[in-house]
Design a protein that fits this description.
The chain has 406 residues and is of the alpha/beta class. It folds into 2 domains: 227 residues, Rossmann fold (3-Layer(aba) Sandwich), CATH 3.40.50; 149 residues, Rossmann fold (3-Layer(aba) Sandwich).
């Protein structure tokens, strides 16, 4: 495992400049070497969410290397993107300090910072210097509700995701003749988990579901026995986790060990539920798990091609990877159209973006108050050792199995 981590960090710090031209590619041009364009790549690559942060950095660096290998930014004489790496250490205040360093380094934009609490802090810090900040993953809607003109989120927020999750939960329960009536929510303590849990607890009763309990846990958590014992006593029909990778894995493993078998583990932004690492390392635990989360369009050949490339580099193809990968391409498109790396010009180009050369189920980008209006999550299920889209039907690869027969 340690050897794999060292290999991972080496790759993410600088993939080969000879990488093949990206699927979305920019063609190379001849001419004098233009000054590089500095891009802040800011993630928590140490601390309790380090695994996800490292994947984020890997995805961003992969896109930067592809763009540079394909000739850089044409409208600026083939200028190359230069990553200025930052480690938020899984702490919002450290993320702010990294933004200060990036400003001094002269970055034209920042991509990051994974966790909602960190994104909330880094976008605010970047706003002081008018640094455009592309939010890669952070789902808290407060991030884009403060009127910050420098902040742009490519993916969906947790209000949109939670509403879709509840609607799809109701669809699957109705199709199964409504066997599920009770729910227990288990969430991590920070902005992402608490906000998601609050939305679930307020909206599920209106759809006819009794929320038996909302259980909060710390980050990190090393023992879920008490929560699972409580779960066993309550016997909910559906368990909804909303937490980060390590805690998610430990929670569902503890459920398995204590023989807690709800009709479904129906995650909303489950930290491991949509991870091939989880599926590979704990197949018996993962099998049947449902998740409403960030996901690519499985019918887009470009998404499949990138998955093959990532796996060839001995990494897992996770949403952290491809959301950062595409955020960098979105930024590159904005710089290309602006013909300038000046911060204000990049902000204006992002605000007017209609970029559609991605493989997410979003349609062309259209930012309103910094939020991409077409962004949505998909419902996934682990089936026979793979993660398959099951809802909505437009993107479905497999039929959803519910209730799950353990």
């Amino acid at each position: 495992m340690q050897q794999r981590r060292r290999k991972f960090l080496k790759q993410s710090a600088g993939l080969s400049a000879a990488a093949a031209a990206g699927t979305f590619g920019f063609q190379s041009i001849a001419g004098a070497q233009a000054a590089p364009i500095k891009v802040g790549v800011l993630h928590p690559v140490t601390g309790f969410v380090a695994y996800s942060g490292q994947l984020c950095r890997f995805g961003a660096q992969l896109a930067i290397d592809e763009i540079n290998a394909a000739g850089g930014i044409k409208s600026m004489g083939g200028a190359k993107l230069e990553a200025v790496l930052g480690d938020a250490q899984s702490k919002p205040e450290v993320g702010v300090s990294e933004v200060e360093k990036m400003n001094e380094a002269g970055v034209s934009a920042i991509v990051g910072s994974y966790a909602s609490a960190i994104c909330l802090a880094t976008t605010q810090a970047a706003a002081k210097y008018d640094i455009p900040h592309l939010v890669d993953v952070g789902v808290a809607d407060q991030i884009v509700e403060r009127g910050l003109k420098n902040t742009f989120r490519f993916g969906p927020g947790y209000k949109v995701i939670t509403e879709a999750a509840i609607n799809d939960l109701h669809i699957m329960n109705t199709l199964a003749r409504k066997p599920a009536k009770t729910v227990m929510v288990v969430h991590e303590e920070s902005l992402f988990g608490t906000g998601t849990a609050d939305l679930l607890a307020s909206q599920l009763p209106g759809m006819g579901y009794q929320v038996l309990e909302v259980a909060k846990h710390a980050n990190p958590t090393r023992d879920f026995n008490n929560i699972v014992l409580r779960m066993k006593a309550l016997n909910p029909d559906i368990v909804i986790p909303a937490n980060y990778y390590n805690e998610y894995v430990l929670l569902v493993r503890t459920m398995k060990q204590q023989n807690v078998r709800p009709m479904a583990i129906y995650s909303v932004l489950g930290g491991a539920a949509s991870s091939f690492k989880f599926v590979k390392e704990f197949p018996d635990v993962a099998n049947g798990v449902i998740d409403c989360n960030h996901w690519y369009n499985p019918k887009d050949k470009r998404a499949i091609a990138l998955r093959r490339k990532v796996e060839k580099l001995d990494q897992f193809y996770t949403y952290e990877v491809y959301l950062n990968y595409q955020s960098v391409y979105l930024l590159a498109d904005a710089i290309e159209r602006a013909g300038s790396a000046k911060r204000e010009a990049v902000i204006d180009a992002l605000a007017s973006s209609t970029w559609d050369k991605h493989f997410m189920p979003y349609g062309p980008t259209r930012f309103v108050n910094g939020q991409n209006q077409g962004a949505q999550a998909l419902v996934l299920q682990v089936l026979k050792g793979d993660i398959r889209v099951v809802l909505p039907n437009t993107y479905a690869e497999s039929e959803l199995v519910f209730p799950w027969k353990a």
